[in-house]
Structure formats: C-alpha cells, structure tokens
Amino acid sequence: MLDSDTEMNEYTSQWGLTPTGFYVPSFDELLSHIQDQMLTYISPDLVMTTNSTSGAVARMLAISEKRHWEHQQLTYYSTFISTASDAALDYIGGNLALKRKVDKPSYATIKITTQGEYLMQAGEEFMTDDGYEFTLLKDILTTQNSDGSWTGTGWVQCEDTGQDTNVAANTITTEVNPDDNVIAITNPEKAAGGQDYEIDDIYRERLRMENAARPGSTAAGIRSALINLDGVREVNIVENPYEDADKYGNPPNSVHIYCLGGIKEDIAETLVDYIAAEAETVGTQVMTVKDATDHPRTVKFDFATDKPIYAKITVNIDDSWNEDDGADFIKQSVADYINYLQMGDPLYITRLYPPVYDIEGIRDAEIEIGTDPKQLAEKDILQKDFEATTCDPDNIEVVVNGI
C-alpha cells in the first residue's frame, strides 16, 4: 500500500502545470481531496455533511484553495502575449521595448489673417463648431504677402484627447476671445496625432506583429515601425515590383505607403530610418528629412482615405431587452467591429449580425449600411487598398420593435 504522502501527490499530479496547460481543479475536486485528507490525518469518524463542523471547515478550505489555484493560473498565463491583460500585458510590452499607446491630443497648423502686422501670443485659444478647443503653442507674427495681405502660421494643440480630436481641415475657425485685428483663422490641413487609449486587444495584436516582423527595411518591418507611432491606427503598403504601372497608377518598382492617422513629420522620419535607400516612394505627401549620416533625403507617402460608415439597424426584441442601454450596446458593438477592420478589408454585412445578436434580448435583426446616411442598403462595402472604414456610434440608427 502507498503511504499517505504518495497518495496525495498521485491524487494531485494533474493539477497545476500540465503538458496541456495550467489546470485548475474544480471546487468538487478540491473538496473531495480536503475531506480525504481530514479523514486520513484527523479521524476516519469525522462527519462531512454540509451542516457539520468538519464539513463546513472542509468547504471553507476548498473555497480558499480554489482562489489560490485561480490566482496561480492568472500568474502563469500573464507571461504570454495571447493571454496576458492589463498591467501584465504592459510588462510584456516593456520587455519588447514597445509601450502601450495612451490617449493623446491632436496638433494642427493654423493660418491667421490680420489687418496689418500683428503679434498673436502663445496661449491664445481657438475652437471648432463642434466645441474642440485648441491652444496656440508659440507666438505668431504676421507678415505681409505680395498681394498685400498679412498672414502667419502657428502650431496648436487640442485641449481634449482621443481620435475625435483629429478634426478636419478648415474647421478651426473661431477665436475664443475675438480680436478685431484678426480677419480670419483656419487650419489648412487636418489635425493629427490624437489617439485613444490602446485597449488590450489592439495592444496585444501590435505586440504579436512586433514579434512577427521587427522594424526593418521589409514591407512588414516598415509597417511595424510606422504603426508604433503615436496617432497611427493602420498602415498599408502597396508594392509594385513590375516594369509597368499598377492599377492605381503607381510607377514601376515603387512603394506606395498609406497611413491612417499620425503626424507627417514623424512618418517621414520613420521612413527615412527604415526604408531602403534605393526604394522609390510614391505619394502626395513629400517630405525631406536628414538621415543618420546627416544627408537630406526625400520620401513620399499618403494618408489613407477615411471612409465613414453609416448604418440603420432594426431589431425585434423580447422581455430580456435592456430598455435603457440596449440600443447603445448595439451601436458600440457594431462600431467596434467596423473600426477594427484593416485598411483595404471589405465590410461584409453578414459579419455585422453576430455583434448585434450578442446583445441580450434581440430575437431578429435587419441591417443596412452605406457611406451615405441617405443611401443605405443590405449589401457589402468593398474597399481599395488605401481606404479605411471608420464608424462613430452616432452614425448608427437603431430602430427597436416590440417595446
């Protein structure tokens, strides 16, 4: 006969780390094990019913042991990119020298037109019609142009953070404290650099990509380097290795890089650092940056075409429907799916039904989508390689039947 220590080790040999992963024993397994040990080491006459003292103690110990095993399992899985979360995922990213992106404000160049020479001091505030406020970072002194007008440019930072602060061109048009010397204000280009806090799923995918393709001169390496920049949400690289122009008009043996978001100066510096010297880049954004040898080098790229998606979702519900938040849950779930699509990916309407049916209380649903809120249909939306779908929850209308 085996002694009691041998029996205990044999009994628990499949708990914890096993060839198939980390196994956490169930409450019943733990309770049975603890009861066996109490009967062996204390007395075989102990009563183990739920209303007995010994039975209550055994159950308390089983609950405590269950929590202990679960904590060990979390500790074990926190060492892997695929299963780590929160701070554990941040530690893994730190080991890879790849920090999580935090929420940041956007920046924009503004142009002011004045009655004559005028000094606008740093700290002056401007805003959009949507209420986003921007602060001037450095003084602007307007100068006279050949046509007699007085203009100057400056750099402003948004007071808020997030992707929504990347406001469109010509939307920063109002001075918070109006000045009679100022004739007009605008931002000639879209604001850039604003980003949301990077949630675990997106951060985890970026860490996986970093492992698969370290930053370098390959297409995958260049994409990895660019997507790590603040404000850059997606990157696509269209290579044309042939001797003829491709379907988009890219010249032979060229590389056309598209970025969704980001600051153009940061993108240009990264391209100079990583792209091969002999590569011919294509794009409407033309930037000259000094390389590691202090020689100027010109690179070209483009910002991706942002394709806003609108949707109308009609649902029939049952008694489990959440009247207060159900519609908002649908909007957020569908918007999240659309925003997670990669640049160039088609938006298949059938893929939108699972996120909708995941919301409790929905019996059936009908979904229509489109790029124009007045022209929605139940059909797929295809994209070119340089197009990226985005969807604001406010772009989604939810019609609820059955309340």
Could you characterize what this model shows?
Mean pLDDT is 87; it is low at 6-11. The protein has helices at 4-11, 27-41, 53-77, 86-95, 200-212, 219-227, 264-274, 326-340, 353-357; strands at residues 16-18, 21-23, 107-114, 119-120, 125-127, 133-136, 140-141, 143-144, 150-158, 174-175, 182-186, 234-240, 254-260, 280-282, 285-290, 296-303, 305-308, 310-317, 362-370, 387-390, 396-401. It is an alpha+beta fold. Helix 2 crosses helix 3 (53-77). The protein is built from nine helices and 21 strands. Strands 3, 5, 6, 8, 9, 10 and 11 form a seven-stranded antiparallel beta sheet that branches. Strands 12, 13, 14, 15 and 16 form a five-stranded mixed beta sheet that branches.
